[in-house]
Amino acid sequence: MLNYQEVFQMQTSQASQIVGIHTVGIRVTDQERALRFYADVLGLQTRVDRALGNGARWIELAPAEAGVTLALEPATNDAPAGTETGIRLITLDADAENARLKSQGVEVGEVLRWPGVPPMFMFHDPDGNRMEIIQQA
Q1: What distance in Å separates the CA atoms of residue 110 and residue 103, rounded to the nearest whole number?
Q2: How far apart are CA 42 and CA 26, in angstroms?
Q3: Whole-prediction pTM value?
Q4: 5 pLDDT band (50/70/90 cuts)?
């Protein structure tokens, strides 16, 4: 039978080396079209845009001060575009951002408001990927 010290040593020697989140992937059917949308419409900055071969690219974008990026990955049969991504972006003003995106032809939902929850709304990118934008509390 193992004693406490042996168990503790086993646990600490197998401790996770994960220290953060670098990027979240979004599947897209056309990387160039997606890059234009995320950069020109959403206003994200391109952090990485490198050729991978076979016409594919590694593209990462993020808001100016963000540490985590969004990677625009080519869609495949096993990982199609047009999904609920679970991604929540932050804005300083949900109403203003909703109106701005709507004026640029982006499919956006109404700004939702619940007690104790920041205002938020959903939108779709050109591939139908769904995300939300939440007002910073």
Answers
A1: 14
A2: 14
A3: 0.85
A4: low
**Beta carbons within 10 angstroms of residue 58's beta carbon:** 14
Region 92-113: mean pLDDT is: 98
Paired tokens of 87: 């991604």
Contact 70, 87 (CB under 8 A): yes
- Which tens digit of pLDDT belongs to each residue from 46-88? 999 999 988 889 999 999 999 999 999 999 999 999 999 999 9
* Alpha-carbon span 52 to 124, nearest angstrom: 27
Alpha helices in the chain (DSSP H): 4-13, 31-36, 94-103
Which domains can be identified in the chain, with CATH numbers?
Answer: 21-135 (3.10.180.10)
Q: What are phi and psi of 25, to 5 degrees?
A: -85, 140
CA–CA dist 74, 72 (Å, integer): 7
Report H helices in 60-119. Answer: 94-103
The closest alpha carbon to 87, from 20, 23, 44, 18, belongs to 23
Residue with token string 């609920």: 84
